[in-house]
Amino acid sequence: MRRILVIVFVFALLLTLGQSVMGQDTITLKLAENQPANNPVTKADIRFAELVKEKTNGEVIVDVHYGATLGQEAETISMARTGVVAMARVNAVPLAEVVSDVGVFNLPFIFSGYDHLWNVLESDVGQEIKGKLENVGLVGLTWFESGFRSFYTTEPVSELSDLEGMNIRVQEAELPMKMVELLGANPTPMPYGDVYSGLQTGVIDGAENDFVSYYTSSHYEVAPYYAVDNHLHPPAIIIMNKAKFDSLSEEHQTAIMEAAEEAKEFEKREMRAFQDESKAKVLEAGVEITEVDTSEFQEAVMPLYEEYPELQGYIERIIELQ
């Protein structure tokens, strides 16, 4: 009888402990991503989620929703601000519509290369601008790298004059629209998910992006001419709702920030390797790649710098960091 009671007691104790463990609250943080699964930024999001789970012993789960299932970047920025999602990985171009100082990173030809970009992002300039996200209810977790953007079109572009009169898709943001106007084309704002059909049906004559996005979105199938001018190199960033971040324990906050930094290094490696791979893939598919004379492109867009006097201080500091 005593043996039976002991067994019953042990079983009840184990059951109670099991219920206690299972009853512990797991914090789930939804992260919105507009790029497809094979894009390096999506892979980095997933790596970030793995690192957060590892560093918090499974107490915090980052649930990555990629492929724009939760919306395009302008929408997910708004969702992160209001707390509809906890996190989003977004580009600096739409983010500048909410935090104007981010726009300095979107000026054409502001960065001379990858090293210059990271010298800036990891300097006081990058930290200051990231800190300004808190004014709009966001926390910047870490910068990510994007590739240099160039134009791809349905007809060849070998010099600046070839862009004249073309309808070029841009993100719905002031700065890229002005840039395309200065280059003689017609800026045509359009959601990213509509670009393929827009090119296919002739609603637009071209768009602009890096080799990775050009390849992973399959835009090369309907716009087989890629003119390398490297006009923009806006970084990306993982943003988080500030109220949600502040509600976490100090240990969880630290784990998330550490995971973000490690994911950044992963993303940089993946992005650079996949840029080369994407270029090779589109060449193999028959895309015509033209290296254009960028000097005339640079000269055409220089007036844009004068339109943002509030950014002049940052511009000077960025130039000094070359």
Kindly describe this structure.
With 322 residues, this protein is of the alpha/beta class. It folds into two domains: 26-145 and 234-280, D-Maltodextrin-Binding Protein, domain 2; 149-232 and 281-320, 3-Layer(aba) Sandwich (D-Maltodextrin-Binding Protein, domain 2), CATH 3.40.190.170. Helix content is 47%, strand content 18%. The chain contains 14 helices and eleven strands. It has helices at residues 2-23, 40-55, 73-82, 92-95, 114-121, 124-131, 174-182, 195-201, 211-216, 242-247, 250-284, 294-301, 303-306, 312-320, and strands at residues 27-32, 60-65, 87-91, 138-144, 149-153, 167-170, 186-189, 206-209, 225-232, 236-241, 288-291. It has a five-stranded mixed β-sheet with strand order 2-1-3-10-4, with helices on both faces. A four-stranded mixed β-sheet has the order 8-5-9-11. It has a two-stranded parallel ribbon with strand order 6-7. Helix 2 (40-55) packs antiparallel against helix 11 (250-284). The protein starts with a helix and ends with a helix.
The overall average pLDDT, rounded, is 93
What's the CATH H-level superfamily name of the largest domain? Bacterial extracellular solute-binding protein, family 7
Spatial strand sequence of the major β-sheet: 2-1-3-10-4
What share of the residues does DSSP label as strand, in percent?
Answer: 15-25%
CATH class descriptor of the largest domain: Alpha Beta
Count, helices: 14
What's the shape?
A: globular
Distance between the termini: 82 Å
* Sheet having the most strands: 5 strands, mixed
CATH topology of the largest domain: D-Maltodextrin-Binding Protein, domain 2
Write down the secondary-structure element order: HEHEHEHHHEEEHEHEHEEHHEHHH
| Unreliable residue stretches | 1-23
Structural class by secondary-structure content: alpha/beta
As a percent range, the share of helical residues equals 40-55%
Q: Examine the secondary-structure arrangement and name the CATH architecture of the largest domain.
A: 3-Layer(aba) Sandwich
